[in-house]
Design a protein that fits this description.
Blueprint (H helix, E strand, L loop, with lengths): L1 E5 L3 E4 L3 H4 L5 E4 L15 E4 L11 H9 L2 E3 L3 H4 E2 L8 H14 L2 H8 L7 E2 L7 H8 L6 H11 L1
Parallel strand pairs: 3-4, 3-5
Antiparallel strand pairs: 1-2, 1-4, 6-7
Length: about 160
Amino acid sequence: CIICVYVQEITIKSEHYKDVVAKEELVYLTSDSPNILEEMDPTKAYVIGGLVDHNHHKGITFEKAKELGIDHAQLPLSSFVKMNSRKVLAVNHVCEIILAYLEKGSWKEAFFTVLPQRKGAVAVDKDGADHQEKEAEDSDSDSDPETQQHTEKAQT
C-alpha cells in the first residue's frame, strides 16, 4: 500500500503511484534521500513507502525513486531533533508528522507532537547542539561565576 499525500487531502490507493499521478507531481519521501524537505508544495503528491525490515533493504526506496525519475526528499528531522535511536520512522509516524506540520505550520512542533518517547527525541538549537548538551555546558562548574571567583582567588 502506498500513500499519496497532497497538502489538501490524503488518499490511499492500491494502484501504483506512477499510474495515479504524473511523475512530475510526485515527491518520494525516503530517509535515504540527500534532499531535505523544507516545506510542502501544494502542487505535489508525497509518496510514503514502507518496508517492514529496513535493515535488509537499505536504500531500496531511494533507488526506486531515482530509477523512476521521481523527485525525492526526507523530512527535516535532523534540523530539529536529535534521537537516541535510528532516524528511520514508521509510515504512521510520517503520516502523523505531515498532518501535524500542515496543522501547526512548524516542523519542530510536528516532530515533538508525534515522535514517541522511546525515540529519545531532544530539540536541536539553531547552532546544531541539542538542548541536553547545552544544559550540561551551562551547568558546568567552570562557567559558574561563583566557582570562577573561588578559582581565581586560589590561583593568586
